[in-house]
């Protein structure tokens, strides 16, 4: 009777056969955010407390929190804990991303991140370059999909921020959360993490050289490889190859 009394109905999980537990936890926490249980800017209970409330292992809670971070619903503040982002993910850009196919969003992502890399090559600071190198080293050394996803998200978002274009960043954040589950699944194949880190290193090299055209082509090539693996595009891969006359404008610094 005591055990039954300790069950909080707000934290009851729906566990469907074949569904990963962290996914169910992430959905429950997202529901609690949307219902106002945890408000924008508010702090969530710590991982141990959430695990107790949900009757699950702490490791599963951590994976769920990382998923919600990638979806731009939560953010982690080092040494302080997990917080709800002040701006909901759905309102961070002009699109309701859920109305579109993954390939639609990915095509837009390629355009936005290629432009971001080109701008960042002109505007990025030495400190930001060093931070990018550290993130990519963590990405290369990641030994599970959650850490691969976290470091991949951090790398790409750092380049978008370094572009110093608020409209671009907001549009990007409006769509990228909807690709979080697909990104997580993409790291399942053996060797994908190492290949991703190598391609990140190529982008980073062009950023260090302050080469806008090279950075854009390297980023587009990295993302186009992922796009070409989408099952819904059939035999019509996207071609973002640079032509002789496809030159970048002279961006302002």
UniProtKB/TrEMBL annotation:
Pfam families: FCD, GntR. It comes from the Bacteria. InterPro entries: GntR_C (IPR011711), TF_FadR/GntR_C (IPR008920), Tscrpt_reg_HTH_GntR (IPR000524), WH-like_DNA-bd_sf (IPR036388), WH_DNA-bd_sf (IPR036390). The keyword Chaperone does not apply. Gene3D superfamilies: GntR ligand-binding domain-like, Winged helix-like DNA-binding domain superfamily/Winged helix DNA-binding domain. Residues 19-87 form the HTH gntR-type domain. Keywords: DNA-binding, Transcription, Transcription regulation. The keyword DNA-binding applies. This is FadR/GntR family transcriptional regulator. It comes from Pseudonocardia eucalypti.
């Amino acid at each position: 009777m005591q055990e039954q009394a300790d069950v909080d109905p707000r934290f009851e999980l729906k566990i469907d056969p074949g569904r990963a537990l962290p996914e169910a936890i992430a959905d429950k926490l997202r529901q609690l955010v949307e219902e106002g249980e945890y408000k924008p800017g508010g702090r969530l209970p710590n991982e141990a407390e959430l695990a107790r409330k949900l009757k699950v292992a702490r490791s599963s809670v951590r994976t769920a929190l990382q998923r919600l971070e990638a979806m731009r619903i939560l953010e982690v503040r080092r040494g302080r804990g997990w917080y709800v982002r002040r701006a909901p993910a759905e309102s961070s850009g002009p699109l309701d991303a859920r109305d579109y196919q993954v390939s639609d969003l990915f095509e837009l992502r390629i355009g936005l991140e290629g432009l971001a890399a080109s701008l960042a090559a002109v505007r990025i600071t030495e400190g930001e370059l060093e931070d990018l190198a550290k993130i990519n080293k963590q990405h290369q050394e990641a030994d599970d999909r959650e850490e691969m996803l976290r470091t991949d998200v951090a790398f790409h978002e750092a380049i978008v921020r370094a572009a110093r274009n608020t409209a671009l960043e907001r549009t990007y954040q409006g769509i990228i959360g909807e690709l979080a589950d697909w990104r997580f699944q993409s790291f399942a194949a053996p060797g994908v993490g190492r290949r991703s880190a190598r391609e990140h290193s190529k982008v980073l090299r062009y950023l260090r050289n302050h080469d806008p055209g090279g950075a854009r082509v390297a980023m587009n090539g990295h993302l186009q490889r992922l796009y070409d693996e989408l099952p819904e595009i059939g035999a019509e891969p996207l071609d973002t190859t640079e032509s002789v006359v496809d030159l970048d404008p002279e961006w302002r610094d």
